[in-house]
Amino acid sequence: MNTKKVFVCGCGHQGMSMAAHLALNNVQVSLWNRTESNIKEIMNTHEIHCSGVVEGTAHIDQVSTNIADVISDFVMISTPSSAHADLARLLAPYVHKDMTIILNPGRTFGAIEFAEALKECGVTEFPLIAETQTIVYTCRRNGPNEASIFALKNDVKIAALHGANIDRIMEQMPDCLRPHYTPVSSVAYTSLANVGMILHCAPVMMNIGWIEAEDIGFKYYHQGISRSVANYLEKLDKERLAVAAALGFQIESTADWLRNTYGVTGETLYDCIQNNTSYEEIDAPAEIRYRYIMEDVPNGLVPMEHIGLELGVPTPNITTIINLASSALDINFRAIGRTFSLEFLRDCL
After folding, report:
1. pLDDT(209) > 90
2. What contacts 303, CB < 8 A, 6 or more positions away?
3. How confident is the model over 33-52, as pLDDT tens digits?
4. Which H or E run includes 72?
5. What's the burial of 158, exposed, middle or buried (CB within 10 Å: 0-12/13-18/19+)?
6. In which band, very low, low, confident or very high, does the pLDDT at 340 lie, cut at 50, 70 and 90?
7. Cα angle 40, 43, 45; round to 5
8. Is residue 97 over pLDDT 90?
9. The sheet that has 62-64: what strands, in order across it?
10. What 3-state DSSP class applies to 128?
11. Which residues are marked as active site?
């Protein structure tokens, strides 16, 4: 039976959109965010105004910065993956075997990191843990309690940390979300199929001058990803596919993902991006210290490079972007990234 009560953890672009979408589909929603200023208006009004493919004023049942006040047994984590381990530690006192926690998305091996953090906190009765390949929404938070949903993606892969649990998780999934997810057998698939590392990191680094220029804005996908940038992304993507194949997984290219998710057509990755009308209104970030780098480099490119090294699969273009981001931001992304040993990953998978 699908759940009628959902705890949405995080109120950024996705969290606000997910909370509104669920509430407008008769789901009782509780909402948490670490920073009170980001949810103050929703705390005062208990409303989110949603526009786009989902429209209406959504009533949010409970809103708080205290997890204990709003937690329920079906948890949708919508924060950047860089917060997953911290959230596991915050949730650890409340988790139990009848709880379901879904990372939206896990990025690369998020479910494994989350479970390991719970274990370090002394948790012995584990909840059902799952991760998605990507965010189910193409969306933006427009104000203190306003969200725009440009598209609901199709064929978003979802997997349970213990693969056999995915059927139980999908049975609980709210009706308005279930059709958009496609269950797969392993979090290795959802992790390796992480297209965020392809679509986010290199375009930011290649547009760093425009992003840091004052009073200049541009559309991230349609203007920031030129033919030459897209050509480089295809090289990154081939390395990702090669690492996945070496692990025994055949995953779709980013261009195929765009075709399947958005129903776009196009011979090349550039064509698919330009033909995606859902990307038309997506602005470029205002700074490079943004989740496209701070999340997708350490939790996407770094583990991909690390696995490639252990398997003997060359990833020179992935390495270039990690080096460039690390140097430009003065952050050692390899030191803070997800770098599980191959032996450990195989035990988990």
Report:
1. yes
2. 108, 109, 191, 337, 338, 339, 340
3. 999 999 999 999 999 999 99
4. none
5. buried
6. confident
7. 110
8. yes
9. 62-64, 28-32, 5-9, 74-77, 100-103, 128-132, 156-160, 181-183
10. strand
11. 200, 296
